[in-house]
Every structure is written in structure tokens, then in C-alpha cells.
Amino acid sequence: MASVTINGRTVTGSAISIRGKQVTVDGEVVSGDDLPRITIEVHGDVERIDVDSCDKLTVHGKAGAVSVVSGNVFCSDVGGSVQTVSGNVACRDVGGNVSTTSGTINRR
Asked: pTM to 2 decimals?
């Protein structure tokens, strides 16, 4: 289980989803605020992260899979794939594929 900090608010969970401005952790809506910018920081291991749009997603731990439509991704080890349409990806070991349509990929 990971602690997730979204714009300064910390919650605990293993599955994170952000669709538009609605943040869901383990199936529970934790924020529906009109957030102009979204910064996500995960401490610990998380099964899956799905994000429509964020400024920055940082994972300090292992992730099962990461999918971001628009935003930069910084992570340690990922068991599955890392995908972003528009954004840079910087990560260590990835068990699946790493892809970005518009951005750079850096294996640290």
C-alpha cells in the first residue's frame, strides 16, 4: 500500500486514477476539486496508476503499470509498462514497454 500526495493532500491506496479533475484511490473519490495543476507523488508500491492529465507524476517505489495521457513520469521500477502520449518518461527497470508519442525516454 502506498501513500499518495496530490497537490499536498496525502491519502493511502494501491490503485490511483485521475480522470479530468476527479481523483480516485482504490475506487473511492478523494477529490473532485477544480485543480488548475495536478502534481502527484507516490511513496511506496502501487499496483496501477491511470492519469488523464498532470504536471508531474513521481513514484518513489515500484509500480505495476503507469499510464498518463498528458504529463511527465518519473519512477523507479515498473513491473508492467509505462505509457504517456504527451510527456517525458524517466525510469529505471521496466518489465514491459516504455512509450511516449511526444516526449523523451530516459532510463536512469
From this structure: 0.81
